[in-house]
Here is the input.
Amino acid sequence: MKLRGRFKPSTIIVAVAGVFLAIFAVGVLTSGTSPGSGQLLPAQPFSLGELGHPSTQISLSGYAGRPVIVNFFASWCGPCKQETPLLARFYRSHHGQVAVVGIDDNDRSSKALAFLQEHGADYPVGVDPQASVATLYGVGELPQTFFLNAKHQIVHHVFGALTARELDSWTSS
Here is the structure.
């Protein structure tokens, strides 16, 4: 069979295989476990400048030995407007037991600061202007939240806005 066009069959096969490999990798990263092993995957380490205080760094290693909720958001994100007040209340009521770290993804700092103030969020927030940490975590759409145990392994991943039920069920387990 002769193909008309610019692509050879081998090029198409490689491209399709690449797509399936990418889908598999994202699935493994976001599921929290490695396939067939039942073991939890470690969260990717990060260190970012703190929103409003760029000389201060927020890093995952700074929360060693503590469970952490890592929330990727932006001021322009509609569902983030629903979940940010919920996270703010959760942080105030569980401060010390569970850390909450926001990662402002591809946003303007002035808008993000106003957004957090408007929604009463006073948990630490790192700035990720080029979405480099979001890319490490496989985050393409916002919001997304990763629940990490005290060993900083991913135990749960939520796509979209969090609910009070999800937060409560995670802390009661």
Q: What stands out?
A: The chain has two domains: 1-31, 47-172. The helical segments are 9-31, 78-94, 109-118, 132-136, 164-172.
